[in-house]
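Hi R.,

As promised on Friday, here is the backbone we talked about, encoded as structure tokens. Could you run it through your design pipeline when you get a chance and send me back a sequence?
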């Protein structure tokens, strides 16, 4: 179910653009979801940066819970292990392995600097893995929208390896 950016989301994307104004990017990678593409467009408005869609960074597939409340999602997640699939969807471990493959494709891109606009779960996993956590969901859990997080290639590569290890 497509979820467009709200007016607040559009304003957050414009503020992200202000924060990134001094950075150059060879490409902007985004998911198939309209809201990530729109966030990227607003953040990079007036800049000549090509866009590349990366389906591997799409949000976790929650199947029958799609359209449910955030509380319903959290209740289901809290009572099931990471390797259990959402009804009609994928497990968190399957999503993590999908993120690993996608982030390896990002790392292989022939650019010095890449802007990735995606959902909070791959960001949370990368941040926690880069910090050496044994838990992809902690210590950082609530990731604010339209907030830049910087990774250089070696740190992101190590985080990707860690995500893969924890999702197996």
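Update: got your reply. Pasting your designed sequence below so it's all in one thread:
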């Amino acid at each position: 179910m497509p979820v467009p950016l709200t007016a607040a989301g559009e304003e957050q994307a414009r503020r992200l653009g202000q924060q990134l104004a001094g950075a150059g990017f060879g490409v902007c990678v985004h998911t198939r979801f309209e809201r990530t593409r729109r966030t990227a467009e607003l953040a990079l408005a007036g800049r000549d940066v090509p866009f590349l869609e990366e389906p591997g960074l799409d949000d976790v597939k929650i199947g029958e819970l799609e359209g449910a409340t955030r509380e319903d999602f959290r209740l289901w997640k809290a009572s099931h292990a990471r390797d259990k699939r959402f009804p009609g969807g994928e497990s968190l471990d399957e999503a993590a392995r999908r993120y690993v493959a996608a982030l390896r494709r990002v790392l292989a891109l022939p650019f010095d600097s890449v802007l990735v606009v995606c959902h909070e779960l791959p960001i949370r996993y990368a941040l926690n893995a880069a910090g050496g956590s044994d838990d992809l969901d902690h210590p950082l859990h609530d990731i604010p929208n339209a907030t830049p997080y910087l990774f250089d290639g070696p740190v992101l590569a190590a985080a990707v390896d860690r995500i893969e290890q924890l999702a197996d």
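One thing I noticed while checking it: Residues 92-107 form the longest helix (16 residues).

Thanks again,
M.
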